[in-house]
Amino acid sequence: MHIDEIRFCAPAAGDPPGCFYCVIDDEWAQGRTLFGGLQAMLAVRAMRLLMPSLPALWSLHTTFVAPIAPGRIRVQVELLRQGKTAIQMSAKLMDGVQVAAIVVAAFGAARESALCVKPVIQPVPQNFDAGVELPFIPALSPAFTQHYAYSWLAGGLPFSGGTEPNTRIKLRQRDVGTLNEDHIVALADAIPPVALSLVQGLTQASTLSWSLEFVRHPQPVDSALWWRVDATLLAARDGYSNQDAHLYGPDGELIALSRQVVAVFG
What we know:
The radius of gyration is 18 Å and the shape is globular. The longest helix is centred in the N-terminal third of the chain and has 15 residues, at 36-50. A hairpin with a 2-residue loop joins β13 and β14 (240-248). It contains 3 helices and 15 strands. The protein folds into 2 domains: 1-110, Thiol Ester Dehydrase, Chain A; 131-266, Hotdog Thioesterase (Thiol Ester Dehydrase, Chain A). The strands form 3 sheets. An 11-stranded antiparallel β-sheet has the order 1-5-6-7-4-11-15-14-13-9-8. α1 (36-50) runs antiparallel to α2 (181-188). The chain is mainly β.
């Protein structure tokens, strides 16, 4: 199922305002649940369906409450507050009557400001073009990763028992098309947790919460172009890990910042 084939159906009679449905096949599974980045993407798409004139997305915070299996997904969107330039919205992904994920997003229109601080541009790694794309292996790789291509530039592969608390991964969307804001949301969550590079052997992990902040909004770009995520494991204890990451666009400039709490079962 191509990422752009995921579309919302018309709400059923009697549904409250802001209620949307879509059907997603198991190609987008991540273990027993739907890929977390896709859950956040669905929330953003539903928000824009409810309010088509929303300005640019600046931040979102996702709490993954319970597993949600591929299939028929219901998203309930609510407008929290609309100011002169900023709009706050929330969305709940529902698995029947169970809340599976809660997403809160902030959108904001550009406005005049005396403040302009651009992020420091990191040099492109010397080995950027030398990385080898990893294959998708059915029944071993998470199902959703068939939609993304990965190349490790630094740090250990998942379950390799490495010692380096950092990874640098080159990635792109395999589904042919153009990447817009919602595609970038999903892409930003597509890398495996850094903690899994430090464990030896297959180990289960589950993201509890994930925050994403945009620092700039690029023009739509071809999905064939490579992006880069530099991720750092900040701390790990008692079965939980904290990591942050920087997402760089095909032009090498910083696009978004990520922060994640992951439960590691092993």
